[in-house]
Amino acid sequence: MAEQNSKDFEDLLSYLRTARGFDFSSYKRATLMRRIEKRMQAVNVDSYAAYLDYLQVDQDEFAQLFNTILINVTGFFRDPDAWEYLRDNVVPLILERRSGEEEIRIWSAGCASGEEAYTLAAIFADAMGVDTFKKRVKIYATDLDEEALQQSRQAVYAARDLEAVDPELLKRYFEPLDGGRYAFDRELRRSVIFGKHDLVADAPVSRVDLLVCRNTLMYFNSEIQEKVLGRFHFALNEGGFLFLGKAETMITHGNIFAPLEMKRRVFVKNGHGHRRERILSSPTRATGHASGDEAMRLRLRELALDASPVAQILIDAAGTIAFINASARARFGMSSRDIGRPIQDLEISYRPLELRSVIEQVHAQRRPMTIKDVAWTGAGAEPALFDIHVSPIVHGTTRSTSITFTEVTEFKRLQEELQHFNQELETAYEELQSTNEELQTTNEELQSTVEELETTNEELHSTNEELETSNEALQTTNEELEVINQELQQVGADLFRAKAFLNSVLSSIRAGVLVVDDDMRVIAWNEQSQEMWGVNAEEVRGRHVWNLDIGFPVETLRTPVRTVLLDGKKPVEYEAECVNRRGKPIQCRVTCSKLQGEEGQPLGVIVAVEEIES
Questions:
Q1: Comparing C-alpha atoms, which of 114, 115, 136, 116 is closest to residue 125?
Q2: Crossing angle for the helix pair 61-70 and 146-154, nearest 10 degrees?
Q3: At 247, is the pLDDT very low, low, confident or very high (cuts 50, 70, 90)?
Q4: 569 backbone dihedrals φ, ψ, rounded to 5°
Q5: pLDDT tens column, 47-95
């Protein structure tokens, strides 16, 4: 059955890819299944195969499914501490580097409904001045969800969406509209460009000074994350900044990004230097017109390099491959077609070693460098160790580079075996000396042991008497424990009855009831809440109430909950517009009451949500 479910799930993904062009194969399977199953529950479908049939019949379901998968959870100044660090530390560095009239390019990847893109616009406009911002800054905001992009382009938000915005920024960059809504400044809006973009399949935005991609990589598997991060590295200018979400790290990609502030997830692109000059001129270009004998000697020299058992690569001054001998082609899966290609486009530039930084260091110091014991595992090959020797080749004003890969796998193996045998020999000699000394002392110890055994025998007699006394005490203790156990069983039965009574009461209430503790974490969730919002108690228990993704606007609880906890003399009631688990808008009456302990201290809040019949 598990294999069938897996096959049906893959068939569903294949249909989404062919029918609508959305390829979710790179998303984490567990997350993807959970989001799709949420939609299946909403339309009362219990299998992937049945949901595939449903999609083929109801074309409008695609929009609901994609909104559920892509989630689009964002906000202005989400994680304020991280945005404050970006404003106070990163933005000044960018402005310092891009002084004068140079253009500043920013990419907000996975922008959802646009809040982060406009947050960036407000921060940079505040730091540079509005006129300078309009002349020099371009913010490219991209997402895969076309519906979210349409909302982003409108740049209109409700007042509750702007609660995290500083009042001064709100007054300066947002225009109030009817119905308690706000529109982002039209002049600044022209500097924000929205577009549909797939981080996995589409080419990245280039020459970027700041790249913001918060809580998007977490939905991809590790292989796709590595691919996307490689594209981010290409997109950023040298020394450009990458700003991730607090749930994402870059621990395994320190070779291309260095942490500037790990706690706030701000990273800097590692530089790889400038393109280098060409390494070898052609023979006829170097000597004018080479004679036949000279051409033969040059050809023999080239054949000798090609036949060398040591893998060798030559890189010209422009950073392109000038020569690859046969050993290098066989070992690293390269071919003659790679000659003339930039080294950064080839796997050999970063695997088994980040070569570009080494090449730059070699030319800066004007001396060769050897990196020992570099591990390499080719496709279908045994792991091997190499000593990589990088040498600068200087001819006039031309700088080129020779890279040789000397395999030392067998040498290292023999060296380790020899070291291991020497250690075993030393250990055996030490153990022999120790054994002799132990034998000498063993006889003395045996004599004293006999005397100690006689003494021990007498002590055992005394111990036996003490054990008999202890046994009587243990019997008495056991009787006391049996009485306590009976009392605990009675307490357990009382607790079970109390729990059953509470569950019956909650189940009988027509309103949806959720109970939160004083840390705002859910501790109770009745069946009516599950019926209204499509989320069972196991999914929400222990979660922070502000993080619930349901049709009830939990943000409206902030003021009533605060009032109940501080005062709590009487319940607080208000009405809210909600969306039930079937996607139908409903009007609800919300009642917040204090949950208090035996001495009247507040332990949390009881929230009752009841649909108002129209």
A1: 136
A2: 80
A3: low
A4: -70, -35
A5: 888 888 888 888 778 777 866 776 656 788 888 999 999 999 999 999 9
Q: How many domains does the chain have?
A: 5
Residues 181 and 256 in one domain: yes
Q: Helix or strand or coil: residue 35?
A: helix
HSE, CB side, 13 Å, CA atoms: give it for residue 172.
15
570: its two tokens: 């009487």
Q: Report d(CA 38, CA 67) in Å as an integer.
A: 11
pLDDT of amino acid 233: 92
User: 551 and 561 in contact (C-beta within 8 Å)?
Assistant: no
Place of tokens 């695609």: 62
* Number of CB atoms found within 10 A of residue 471's CB: 9
Residue 225 in domain: yes
Identify whether residues 603 and 477 lie together within a single domain.
no
d(CA 591, CA 508): 17
Dihedral of alpha carbons 517, 522, 527, 533, sign: positive
Q: CA dihedral in degrees (134, 137, 143, 146; nearest 10)?
A: 20
- What CATH code is carried by the domain that includes residue 85? 3.40.50.150
Decide: 607 and 514 in contact? Cβ < 8 Å. yes
Residues 6 or more apart from 9 whose CB is under 8 A from it?
A: 33, 36, 48
Task: Name which of 76, 181, 74, 167 is nearest 121 in CA terms.
Answer: 76
Q: 129 φ, ψ to 5°? A: 95, 145
**Residue 181: phi, psi to the nearest 5?**
-105, 165
